[in-house]
């Protein structure tokens, strides 16, 4: 059975409610090759977008950003919206990803944070002790005003672009946030790090401090994502870029409940949720469960309430006994996993098997960014291989295995989009 329940919590003028984005190729694949009514349908073309598609690889971006810091440009609605639209205009990609950053909720809460060019997020003072965590200001929803305005300008710009191109779907906007672990990794270290030692030490040595920090990050990221979706984004992506640095046991115990709590903020909205990390082959199934079970999570992952671990256990036991553990209406309808270039999509799809909805999970990925610098033929063959492997998933949205490197030639990206759009598409399997 396919759920066609409209999302009751979205505003009446939301593009998923008015239907402007519902039949876009991106959403068709996030639904596993289905139309909005749940019937198998081929997308108008094979969808593709790139993480960090907006940014330094584009001359028009570098020009617009001149003299404005990264975070200031994110909080200027006209600028953020124009930067979001630039790659859609240039490459004809199938999604706009909101131009912002995972640390924007910190800045909006009043935390002293900056993005140093070529370095990444740097905090005025790292968050190390329980006192530091308890001193973190709570985010006021009103602080999201510039985000809401930027999203509204963007969705309106995307609508105009569809009209100009005379297309019968509007390119969806994807909203996003950092997962609590990845966000906390920057907060505890105070700057980018390779091994994420301080945050991993805190988790086990000062678990109470970790629990309070991760809960704070889950609230901040959850509210940030919800603000974007309510203002007009048609999907949400949770970036847990560094989750791959954790063992399966540590991910399950210290991280999954908080990612689940972050996602519980959007789980009632009926939007596809993409969960992305790098080097995550040891935890892919748990990352999917985090999305599937987000709806039954309490927003505060304290001792009580069903955690991913508990829900997964119940679901497995129920499967063995041939019954359904959870009311399907209580599960997030469209879980999608983002896979980096270290894992073949066919292997990822086979490893995951069917989800709690009984279907193979849609995957997003995973062109190796290094191939963008290869000769045209090598890149062409690599993209064909990604497409062939992606066909074994229950839906495939092509992306890079991680972000666009700043030194990428944008014309190469446009050619990749053309190649992907030229392949034949098929309806999803029942
Ligand atoms: O096109 C897009 O994907 C748009 C928006 C976007 C940005 N950051 C803009 C950005 C998104 C989705 C992010 C997410 C983000 N930010 C993540 C998760 C994804 C990932 O890359 O793993 C992380 C870890 C961050 C934190 C962050 N912000 C880092 C590590 C950096 C890189 C520092 C650098 O300069 O190389 C940033 C800066 C940043 N965020 C840039 C952009 C376009 C570059 C800033 C610039 O153009 O000067």
From TrEMBL:
<keyword id="KW-0627">Porphyrin biosynthesis</keyword>
<keyword id="KW-0456">Lyase</keyword>
<comment type="similarity">
    <text>Belongs to the uroporphyrinogen decarboxylase family.</text>
</comment>
<protein>
    <recommendedName>
        <fullName>Uroporphyrinogen decarboxylase</fullName>
        <ecNumber>4.1.1.37</ecNumber>
    </recommendedName>
</protein>
<comment type="pathway">
    <text>Porphyrin-containing compound metabolism; protoporphyrin-IX biosynthesis; coproporphyrinogen-III from 5-aminolevulinate: step 4/4.</text>
</comment>
<feature type="binding site">
    <location>
        <position position="101"/>
    </location>
    <ligand>
        <name>substrate</name>
    </ligand>
</feature>
<dbReference type="InterPro" id="IPR000257">
    <property type="entry name" value="Uroporphyrinogen_deCOase"/>
</dbReference>
<feature type="domain" description="Uroporphyrinogen decarboxylase (URO-D)">
    <location>
        <begin position="174"/>
        <end position="190"/>
    </location>
</feature>
<feature type="binding site">
    <location>
        <position position="186"/>
    </location>
    <ligand>
        <name>substrate</name>
    </ligand>
</feature>
<comment type="function">
    <text>Catalyzes the decarboxylation of four acetate groups of uroporphyrinogen-III to yield coproporphyrinogen-III.</text>
</comment>
<keyword id="KW-0963">Cytoplasm</keyword>
<dbReference type="Pfam" id="PF01208">
    <property type="entry name" value="URO-D"/>
</dbReference>
<keyword id="KW-0210">Decarboxylase</keyword>
<dbReference type="InterPro" id="IPR006361">
    <property type="entry name" value="Uroporphyrinogen_deCO2ase_HemE"/>
</dbReference>
<feature type="domain" description="Uroporphyrinogen decarboxylase (URO-D)">
    <location>
        <begin position="47"/>
        <end position="56"/>
    </location>
</feature>
<comment type="subunit">
    <text>Homodimer.</text>
</comment>
<feature type="site" description="Transition state stabilizer">
    <location>
        <position position="101"/>
    </location>
</feature>
<feature type="binding site">
    <location>
        <position position="402"/>
    </location>
    <ligand>
        <name>substrate</name>
    </ligand>
</feature>
<dbReference type="InterPro" id="IPR038071">
    <property type="entry name" value="UROD/MetE-like_sf"/>
</dbReference>
<feature type="binding site">
    <location>
        <position position="241"/>
    </location>
    <ligand>
        <name>substrate</name>
    </ligand>
</feature>
<feature type="binding site">
    <location>
        <begin position="52"/>
        <end position="56"/>
    </location>
    <ligand>
        <name>substrate</name>
    </ligand>
</feature>
């Amino acid at each position: 059975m396919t759920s066609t329940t409209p999302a009751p919590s979205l505003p009446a003028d939301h593009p998923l409610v008015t239907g402007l984005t519902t039949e876009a190729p991106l959403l068709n694949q996030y639904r596993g090759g289905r139309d909005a009514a749940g019937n198998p349908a081929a997308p108008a073309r094979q969808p593709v977008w790139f993480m960090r598609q907006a940014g330094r690889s584009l001359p028009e971006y570098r020009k617009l950003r001149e003299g404005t810091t990264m975070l200031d440009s994110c909080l200027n609605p006209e600028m953020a919206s124009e930067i979001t639209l630039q790659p859609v205009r240039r490459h004809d990609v199938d999604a706009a990803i909101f131009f912002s950053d995972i640390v924007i909720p910190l800045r909006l809460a009043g935390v002293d944070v900056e993005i140093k060019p070529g370095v990444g997020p740097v905090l005025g003072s790292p968050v190390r002790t329980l006192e530091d965590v308890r001193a973190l200001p709570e985010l006021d929803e009103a602080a999201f005003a510039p985000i809401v305005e930027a999203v509204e300008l963007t969705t309106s710009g995307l609508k105009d672009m569809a009209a100009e191109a005379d297309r019968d779907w509007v390119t969806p906007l994807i909203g996003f946030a950092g997962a609590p672990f990845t966000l906390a990794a920057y907060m505890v270290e105070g700057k980018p790090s390779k091994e994420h030692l301080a945050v991993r030490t805190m988790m086990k040595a000062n678990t109470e401090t970790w629990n309070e920090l991760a809960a704070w990050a889950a609230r901040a990221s959850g509210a940030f994502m919800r603000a974007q979706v309510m203002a007009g984004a048609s999907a949400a992506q949770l970036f847990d870029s560094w989750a791959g640095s954790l063992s399966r046991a540590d991910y399950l115990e210290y991280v999954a409940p908080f990612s689940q709590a972050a996602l519980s903020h959007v789980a009632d909205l009926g939007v596809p949720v993409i969960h992305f990390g790098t080097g995550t082959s040891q935890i892919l199934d748990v990352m999917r469960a985090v999305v599937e079970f987000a709806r039954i999570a309490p927003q505060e992952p304290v001792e009580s309430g069903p955690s991913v671990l508990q829900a997964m256990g119940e679901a497995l036991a129920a499967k063995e006994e041939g019954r359904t553990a959870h009311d399907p209406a209580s599960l997030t309808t469209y879980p999608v996993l983002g896979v980096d270039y270290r894992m073949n999509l066919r292997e990822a799809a086979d490893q995951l098997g069917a989800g709690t909805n009984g279907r193979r999970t849609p995957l997003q990925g995973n062109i190796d960014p290094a191939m963008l610098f290869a000769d045209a033929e090598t890149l062409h063959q690599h993209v064909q291989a990604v497409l062939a492997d992606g066909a074994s998933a229950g839906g495939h949205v092509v992306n890079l295995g991680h972000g666009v490197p700043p030194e990428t030639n944008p014309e190469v990206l446009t050619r990749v989009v053309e190649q992907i759009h030229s392949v034949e598409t098929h309806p999803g399997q029942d």
